[in-house]
Design a protein that fits this description.
The chain has two helices and twelve strands; from the N terminus they run H-H-E-E-E-E-E-E-E-E-E-E-E-E. Among the domains are: about 60-140, Nucleic acid-binding proteins (OB fold (Dihydrolipoamide Acetyltransferase, E2P), Beta Barrel); about 145-215, Copper binding periplasmic protein CusF (OB fold (Dihydrolipoamide Acetyltransferase, E2P)), CATH 2.40.50.320. It starts with a helix and ends in a 7-residue tail after the last strand. The chain has helices at about 1-30, 45-55, and strands spanning about 65-75, 80-85, 90-95, 100, 120-125, 130-140, 145-155, 160-165, 170-175, 180-185, 195-200, 215. It is of the alpha+beta class.
Length: about 220
């Protein structure tokens, strides 16, 4: 029995020595390859990162720098959008099939729903060649309030449109609909070119079109 015990003890020591030698060898191999222990990337982690990049609209440039721009649209088409920024500079950003367009009240918004003069925020990614590509374009809504414009009628087509020259000297054209009301009703006959009026128009954030909901015809003065 004592002979067997004496044989088992050296065997255990030898096995422990071999295991320790193999562990040190593996550690040295990892360090030689520049891969610190515990930092080996698994295929599962890489797949998760790619999925996250795809969900964010990033293709082949996951390390690109994200940048946000807000300004007035100067020009826009299916391939690019140019914004005038507050500091007086401008920036042109590419659009592609992955770019998401968000316009209030329009669930199926596309680039053709954007127009010069609108305010927009663009989330973009900068590529290795320093170019910018839009991930998302969001039309910035204005205050949901009605606007009033006072001026003199320069053109009028009943039921169609009316154009006035405002106090700032600019011409403004408004679309007329069946719902457009003329007030007071007894001055409807006075609504002609040369009449002084106030146009009431709601602000539509999804369009630059102006639609008149009301026209107030001012009384004629002695000078008129």
């Amino acid at each position: 029995m004592k002979t067997k015990q004496l044989l088992i003890i050296p065997a255990i020591i030898l096995a422990f020595f071999i295991f320790s030698t193999q562990t040190v060898a593996v550690s040295q191999t990892l360090q030689a390859k520049g891969t610190p222990p515990g930092s080996v990337k698994t295929p599962g982690a890489m797949a998760t990162q790619k999925a996250s990049d795809k969900a964010a609209g990033i293709k082949g440039n996951s390390k690109g720098k994200h940048e946000n721009y807000k300004g007035t649209i100067m020009a826009v088409d299916a391939s690019s959008i140019t914004l005038a920024l507050k500091d007086g500079a401008s920036v042109t950003i590419a659009l592609n099939g992955e770019t998401r367009i968000q316009i209030p009240t329009d669930k199926e918004a596309a680039a053709d729903g954007l127009a010069a003069g609108m305010t927009a925020m663009v989330q973009a990614i900068r590529g290795k060649d320093d170019s910018l590509t839009a991930l998302k374009v969001v039309l910035v809504p204005g205050k949901p309030a009605k606007t009033q414009r006072v001026g003199v009628v320069t053109a009028y087509a009943a039921g169609s449109s009316i154009t006035i020259q405002a106090k700032d000297g600019q011409l403004y054209t408004f679309t007329l609909t069946e719902e457009t009301k003329v007030l007071p009703t007894e001055r409807l006959g006075s609504l002609t070119v040369g009449a002084r009026v106030t146009i009431i128009s709601p602000r539509d954030v999804s369009s630059l079109d102006r639609t008149a909901t009301g026209i107030v015809v001012h009384p004629q003065t002695a000078e008129e």
